[in-house]
Amino acid sequence: MFKKLREQCWKANLELPKLGLVIYTFGNVSSIDRNRGVFAIKPSGVDYDRMEPKDMVIVDLDGNVVDGELRPSSDVNTHLVLYNAFPHIGGIVHTHSTHAVAWAQALRPVPIYGTTHADHLAGDIPCTPLMADERIANDYETETGNQIVESFRAEKLNPDEIQMVLVAGHGPFTWGVNAEKAVYHAKVLEELCRMAYLTERINPDAPRLKASLIEKHYSRKHGKNAYYGQKN
Amino acid sequence: MFKKLREQCWKANLELPKLGLVIYTFGNVSSIDRNRGVFAIKPSGVDYDRMEPKDMVIVDLDGNVVDGELRPSSDVNTHLVLYNAFPHIGGIVHTHSTHAVAWAQALRPVPIYGTTHADHLAGDIPCTPLMADERIANDYETETGNQIVESFRAEKLNPDEIQMVLVAGHGPFTWGVNAEKAVYHAKVLEELCRMAYLTERINPDAPRLKASLIEKHYSRKHGKNAYYGQKN
Amino acid sequence: MFKKLREQCWKANLELPKLGLVIYTFGNVSSIDRNRGVFAIKPSGVDYDRMEPKDMVIVDLDGNVVDGELRPSSDVNTHLVLYNAFPHIGGIVHTHSTHAVAWAQALRPVPIYGTTHADHLAGDIPCTPLMADERIANDYETETGNQIVESFRAEKLNPDEIQMVLVAGHGPFTWGVNAEKAVYHAKVLEELCRMAYLTERINPDAPRLKASLIEKHYSRKHGKNAYYGQKN
Amino acid sequence: MFKKLREQCWKANLELPKLGLVIYTFGNVSSIDRNRGVFAIKPSGVDYDRMEPKDMVIVDLDGNVVDGELRPSSDVNTHLVLYNAFPHIGGIVHTHSTHAVAWAQALRPVPIYGTTHADHLAGDIPCTPLMADERIANDYETETGNQIVESFRAEKLNPDEIQMVLVAGHGPFTWGVNAEKAVYHAKVLEELCRMAYLTERINPDAPRLKASLIEKHYSRKHGKNAYYGQKN
């Protein structure tokens, strides 16, 4: 019944270890079918190399498991909040990729130092505040999602333009128009974090990329005047 | 006679080079059968790609070789001390993995900076003191085990909860309920050491993860209220 | 009609992900046929593993697409400027390889610290100035090429001897007598950037290699007294 | 005629790219037959994946090519000096491996920070002085060998115990009782350089390993009381 959705989700999950973004079960991908109002997500704690499409768990937008024999990822409620708050996103990825985690543990947004970064987003990669104790004691995974959404609102960030975030002390979440694009952003984020780390070592006074170059590179690839890639 | 035990041990040893944790013969795994009171351990100085299950050496809990034609790992007495002192552990790993060795050589415990760490243990990764000269001159490998056990007692650490340690100036030992889990901890330790290294470079003032987040993440995966993974 | 040229270009493009120099579509190679006055270049935004030789786009030295069904790389005008300004080069590579981007983002030329560097060029790896706003607003990719050419003229660098450059805030361009050699320089550049990065960490006061050693190593491999490699 | 010697040399050369120690032609291995007074060495500038055993060049201890159709490695005279000065060594390796080059470019010996290092040598990894201009102008590769030999004599180092060296501003040479062991030392050296680099970042005040631990680890593996590995 949810065969195609499960296959997309399963395939996107398998990309994570191939791209060097996760070891063991350190990550998960979900993929949503907006028409039916359900998403498929990795089951909790199951190894990537033993997982089959049928193991993907189908969850509706109220958080109910509607199909599947396994428990969904323990992060399912974070995915749920993001799908409800960001209506255009089609897939979500959570990893513990090394350099993204290091920036999250350092409690720092990633400064936009170059065009590789500006090709994908036109500002720093945001980092949420550390979660307050009462929220941790509450429904932790839901609050993780809330914190991301509140950060975007507080900083007036557009989740259709900035498709990645660091959760302070924890690690990255990324999303995109579909699960495949969300995985793409997870890989790009890890690489941007590594480049920014090296840039600061090589020149502790390296400035952010200037606005005109950010604007140029971002608009080459995004928006109505984009000219990167092939015409559809 | 010890066919299954040897196979478990051999298989776990082969994981070390595959996971990038050892080059050449820089590591060893042992696996214990508590009912029979014997453990299997890698033979000393034998290449991973030439090793067969039959080459694993069977040792009893007094340190006697009870079966096998080769010499056991030169670290056998360290394994012996740990099996005798920590009654619930089923497997032990020693490696010289790069980032774990770097912290051990830096003579520093690894601060708990994030949730990746807290998913596995609820405090810093301990580092023993440097061994005193008279102990080095004595039975060195036994004393290495003693030093680990004494460190855990002095700091009131529970070896069923903290399943990894750095031996100062030397490198890591990890353990677990079986050899496979001990290898898992060896890989996780290396990754935690790498993340902590990067975190301190990106923000030299990065704080330890706060207690409420440590508690939340550790208890998600461990203890009676754990909800990560599948029901058994 | 342009079968051989397309094959050379295609093959050289495929080397980039194999050598770890690009992820996704983060790079491009072109290859010129000087006799016919045309070059083949990677199509824009097409994945390396889906690309076939026929997809390479043929462009003349006025920048007109003369054959091919896809749009050329968005960087085509940078390649065009370089082919017109540097008459002996036969291939050009652009990547976003990690360490080269880090130096470009740090806005620093790469100091010549050792013989690995001197085996390939006899001075620092140049880094252009950041582009002025009015040039960015103009034809950006053409201006990127202009900026490289002007940097070489201002610093009196010979593009037949220094076959690599960092574009400030962006990343590397390399070239060579053919596309294969340009790819070779892209890989060597990434490695030189990584070595220089590490050198400065290990010794912040490390001096540039002395002139006599630079001269010795460069002339071992280049010019009429070269004695490295086989006689042709 | 030199079939076995060529095969050993060829096989050892092929290990270098497999172990991640060289890219392209950035390294060479030689293997000596002491009874016949000749050694086999990699030909200059030939790619590892195109090389066949017959391409190895046979050179005598006066530096004459006695068999082979290709030019020997441009570093042949460095190998020659080392074979003549160090009578017990059976193989020599030169690479430009990343971390070893970084220490050589930083002009620093590698401090002995831990037991991984002490398992292989009982002191710092030496680094030669920078070569004087008049020696560079002379027979450069011979002088590179001379400089290594003089460094060992000046510091009273035993080449049978310390089987690796950094040539200042250049990179590493390693050796061993045969070519296979020399390659082993090249890999170990790269790893020790990486560990020492990380150790100094994690703790800039990290002390050298204390003498009793150095002595213990070195003598576990070397000399008449060694007990590591299997009895022969």
From TrEMBL, chains A, B, C, D:
It catalyses: L-ribulose 5-phosphate = D-xylulose 5-phosphate. Keywords: Carbohydrate metabolism, Isomerase, Metal-binding, Zinc. Its cofactor is Zn(2+). One of its GO terms (biological process) is pentose catabolic process. GO terms for cellular component: cytosol. It is an enzyme of class 5 (isomerase). GO terms for molecular function: aldehyde-lyase activity; L-ribulose-phosphate 4-epimerase activity; metal ion binding. Its EC number is 5.1.3.4. Pfam families: Aldolase_II. Residues 7-197 form the Class II aldolase/adducin N-terminal domain. Belongs to the aldolase class II family. AraD/FucA subfamily. This is L-ribulose-5-phosphate 4-epimerase.
